[in-house]
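Incident log, support desk, overnight shift.

02:14 A customer reports that sequence design results differ from what the structure should imply. Their input is reproduced verbatim below. On-call engineer (initials T.W.) acknowledged and began investigating.
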């Protein structure tokens, strides 16, 4: 009997119930998108921010940095850095060796770097000319280039103690930082000048913080490399965590607003149904129908609206999440395995909550009043 009444209800009120289901579908779609994006938005946002520099510095244990960027103390063995590839949170690193060299007769900070790694971590740097690709090419800061009167294509002489090398300026770099007053050379060149083959003095590490703190990542690095101290750059970590939290909060607020509108649509539809079926409800109660039977009739409508809207919303939310992933993060987001059950639970729960007040109005109907035609 209950199923026949439900089928009749959906057949005769399909337009109103369809509108309520569509509203719930939109709310469920935002919920599904929120869940799937929250599952991956931390790592994707982190990967986007990782293009703006390192968030951990590695130094030899017991060493310190001078104000000019040079290192005091022991070096780091370059071959030991391969251990960083085994840490999942580490997405990139750039070793370097700094020294104060004689450049065209003037003292200038020279940094030996691995250009391929540095370029991957410094996509925001403005380079006029090109990144060095040959072992005899260098990158010169714009301020240093102005003071030395050099341009891309010029040759530059670099000396350190008794060692000297001549390189070609492949490009000029502008970062707004210390690099503007430095010359960057291939790491083997700096090692040869300093007489420290296979040694580096500083390693910039780019690490994801989604799911763990930057301190935990630094601890994992020190566990792999006991002779190295890892210093988190907390200002970068805090900014990254703040961005991720704000993105999630924005998605949650949008989902809450849409679900609130969907709840109003479901509640108004159910209340209209109660008003239209007053005579039917009164007759059911007069014939001895228990209140739970009457409540089940309307709550089943709410469950149907929530379940259908939840299923459709989950599929639509996947599409929204995939679109945001491609347009914003330029990556394919992985669906959250909890997306479907959570979306269904939220949609059904909201629909049931919106049906409570109409159900209470239905249970308050006096059959005697209805049968008298009042």
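02:41 Re-run completed on a clean worker. Output:
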């Amino acid at each position: 009997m209950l199923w026949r009444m439900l089928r009749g209800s959906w057949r005769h009120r399909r337009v109103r119930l369809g509108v309520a289901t569509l509203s719930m579908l939109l709310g469920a779609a935002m919920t599904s998108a929120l869940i799937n994006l929250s599952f991956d938005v931390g790592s994707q946002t982190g990967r986007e921010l990782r293009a703006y520099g390192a968030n951990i510095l590695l130094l030899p244990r017991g060493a310190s940095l001078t104000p000019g960027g040079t290192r005091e103390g022991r070096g780091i063995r370059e071959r030991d850095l391969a251990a960083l590839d085994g840490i999942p949170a580490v997405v990139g690193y750039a070793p370097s060796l700094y020294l104060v060299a004689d450049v065209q007769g003037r003292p200038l900070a020279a940094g030996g770097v691995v250009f391929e790694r540095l370029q991957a971590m410094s996509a925001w740097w403005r380079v006029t000319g090109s990144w060095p690709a040959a072992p005899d090419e260098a990158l010169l800061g714009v301020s240093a280039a102005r003071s030395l009167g050099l341009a891309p294509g010029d040759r530059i002489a670099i000396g350190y103690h008794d060692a000297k090398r001549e390189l070609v300026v492949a490009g000029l770099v502008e970062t707004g930082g210390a690099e503007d007053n430095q010359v960057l050379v291939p790491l083997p060149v700096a090692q040869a000048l300093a007489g420290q083959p296979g040694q580096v003095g500083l390693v910039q590490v780019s690490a994801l913080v989604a799911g763990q703190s930057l301190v935990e990542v630094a601890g994992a690095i020190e566990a792999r490399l006991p002779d190295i101290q890892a210093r988190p750059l907390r200002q970068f970590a805090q900014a990254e965590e703040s961005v991720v939290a704000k993105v999630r909060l924005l998605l949650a607020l949008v989902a809450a607003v849409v679900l609130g509108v969907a709840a109003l649509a479901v509640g108004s539809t159910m209340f209209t149904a109660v008003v239209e079926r007053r005579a039917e409800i009164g007759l059911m109660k007069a014939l001895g129908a228990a209140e739970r039977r009457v409540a089940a009739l309307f709550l089943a409508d709410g469950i149907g609206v929530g379940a259908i809207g939840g299923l459709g919303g989950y599929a639509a939310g996947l599409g929204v999440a995939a679109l945001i992933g491609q347009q914003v993060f330029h990556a394919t987001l992985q669906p959250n395995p909890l997306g479907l059950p959570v979306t269904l639970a939220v949609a059904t729960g909201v629909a049931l909550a919106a049906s409570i007040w109409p159900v209470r109005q239905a249970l308050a109907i006096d059959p005697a009043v209805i049968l008298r035609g009042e």
